[in-house]
Design brief:
The complex is a heterodimer of chains A (about 140) and B (about 400). Chain A is α+β, with helices and mostly antiparallel strands and about 140 residues long. Helices cover about 40% and strands about 15% of the residues of chain A. In chain A, helix 4 packs antiparallel against helix 5. The longest helix of chain A has 16 residues. With about 400 residues, chain B is α/β, with parallel strands linked by helices. Classes of the chains: A alpha+beta (about 140), B alpha/beta (about 400).
Chain lengths: ~140, ~400
């Protein structure tokens, strides 16, 4: 059961650390903590003139699932506006409900582990905070 | 007395309930419950359930007897007068009670001394007291091997310090406090001492008056009892001088619309209908613990700690966070695996039937001090055996192989 959770693709996503590293001149920044386990993500954005994500960087102090989720997010976030980020979050929530999940399909085995759902959602919560904030 | 390990293990129904083997090493979060405790609670709920200290009918008398009998069992376990035992909702509730009621006797500028390794329940209530009453809060540092650094006592313990509130045993590192040294130093400046005994009480009876401290708290569910019950012990003169925390039924002498007088301790601190069933269960748990040969149990638990330390010592990239040996420690062991997050270690162990805790263990200041994301923690109880440790080590090897 644990090996199903930590399958090859999800481990590879975590190890890829896509988007790892803070931006030098971010226009938006957000930080999110999971108070239950202490996982933390700091996330930076720059936006284009239309309010779409132009660049994203992050620093994750968290588990493999959180790292993998941040990698997915970094791979698909550029070019999205707030509605696009909401759609991405809907994909993640669908994966955690065992109903597909688009870019987050690899997280389907997490559906059975409710205590780990927040690990997957934490980067998306930070991204949502960053894109809707007015800084 | 002797220690029949297989007989003791058989007293815990959940350990053999399946599915599959259960290697329960999360006792520091919540221990399992022996049949004797389950029987006591069931007997109360089916033969004596009523409100305590209120009715005159047969069941009310039985409920009062059961509740006060539980208080007497706890007092025997702690070697204290029975009227010095206050039942609270848990260990956190007990500390909050002290922070409010003893805290009400403090003045702005008075100081409370905690440490960097405290559980949040022994930090946050004092921060809240600081913010509401103007006291000041100091923290003893922690040594590299996860002990409270008592070398800092002369610097941080002053005549303005009114309370020293420390973990008797760390819930992260398992390190045991040098209580006589703390008690002597506190006494020299007139400060009181509160010990958070959440991780110590599950490892055998105590002699609190001999410890030289003033307040002691522990939780029922970590000491083989039910949830929803905890204990505050305090010296009678302290309880007598403290105002109540919560107001309501039971804690009063007389109520008029103009004013209310307080009941004497311990009832002054037990407003409302108490958690009678959980108290009965905790009384049974104390009775059960007192029936064990703790010299033999401690020897057994420490042999398992040694097996765990030795096994982890052979895992490349594994590091113990806490005392490296068996001296002045209890069977709580935190460790780190390079390149594998503690949550992923714990999740992998679950696949091997091993229950451990991972994360910050409600000790975020300690994690921050050592720049840790968290640790993986194995916490042992008398029913654990070598198969539990070996299953953990097998799971750790698997985590290293697949996740690093």
């Amino acid at each position: 059961m644990t090996d199903q959770l930590y399958h090859e693709r999800i481990v590879a996503l975590a190890k890829a650390r896509t988007g790892d590293g803070r931006l030098t001149a971010p226009e938006r920044t957000a930080q999110r903590d999971n108070p239950l386990c202490g996982d933390r993500i700091s996330l930076d954005l720059t936006l284009d003139a239309a309010g779409r994500i132009a660049a994203l960087g992050h620093k994750v102090r968290g588990c493999l699932l959180c790292q993998a989720s941040a990698s997915v997010l970094s791979a698909v976030a550029v070019g999205r506006d707030a509605d696009g980020v909401a759609a991405l979050r809907a994909d993640a929530e669908a994966a955690l409900a065992g109903q597909g999940g688009g870019a987050y399909e690899a997280f389907a085995p997490v559906a059975a582990h409710k205590s780990r759902h927040e690990c997957v959602l934490l980067p998306l919560q930070a991204l949502t905070d960053a894109i809707v904030s007015r800084q | 007395m002797s220690f029949d390990h297989s007989g003791l293990r058989a007293q815990f129904p959940i350990l053999n309930a399946g599915p599959g083997p259960l290697h329960y090493l999360d006792n520091g979060a919540s221990a399992q419950t022996p049949q004797a405790v389950l029987d006591a609670v069931l007997a109360y709920e089916t033969t004596a359930r009523a409100n305590a200290h209120r009715g005159v009918h047969r069941l009310a008398e039985a409920a009062t007897d059961a509740y006060e009998g539980a208080r007497a069992e706890v007092a025997r376990f702690l070697n204290t007068p029975v009227d010095e035992i206050v039942f609270a909702g848990g260990c956190t509730a007990a500390i909050n009670l002290v922070a409010h009621s003893f805290g009400a006797t403090l003045k702005p500028g008075d100081r409370v001394l905690v440490s960097e390794l405290e559980h949040h329940s022994n930090i946050v209530p004092w921060q809240m007291l600081r913010d509401r009453a103007g006291i000041e809060l100091d923290a003893l540092p922690v040594t590299e091997d996860g002990r409270i650094d008592l070398g800092a006592l002369p610097r941080l313990l002053t005549e303005r310090t009114k309370l020293v509130a420390l973990a008797h045993v760390s819930n992260v590192t398992g390190a045991a406090l040098d209580v006589p040294e703390v008690a002597a130093a506190a006494r020299a400046v007139g400060a009181r001492v509160l010990l958070d005994g959440a991780q110590r009480a599950p490892h055998g009876p105590l002699d609190l008056p001999a410890l030289g401290v003033d307040f002691y708290v522990f939780a029922g569910h970590k000491a083989y009892g039910p949830n929803g019950i905890g204990v505050l012990w305090a010296r009678a003169e302290l309880l007598e001088a403290m105002p109540p925390f919560l107001g309501g039924g039971s804690m009063i002498g007389r109520v008029t619309l103009a004013r209310t007088t307080w009941a004497p301790p311990p009832r002054r601190f037990e407003a409302g209908t108490p958690p009678i069933g959980p108290a009965v269960g905790l009384g049974a748990a104390c009775h059960w613990m007192a029936s064990l040969d703790w010299s033999a149990v401690a020897s057994h638990e420490m042999s398992l700690v040694q097996r765990l330390l030795d096994g982890l010592g052979e895992v490349p990239g594994a590091r113990i966070f806490g005392p490296a040996g068996l001296q002045r420690r209890y069977p709580v062991v935190s460790f780190l695996l390079d390149g594998v997050h503690p949550h992923d270690v714990a999740q992998t162990l679950d696949g091997f039937g091993v229950a451990v805790r991972a994360g910050h263990h409600c000790a975020q200041p300690l994690m921050e001090r050592f720049d840790l994301d968290g640790t993986t923690r194995a916490s042992l109880a008398p029913y654990n055996d070598a198969s539990d440790i070996d299953a953990l080590l097998k799971g750790v090897a698997h985590a290293v192989r697949t996740l690093r």
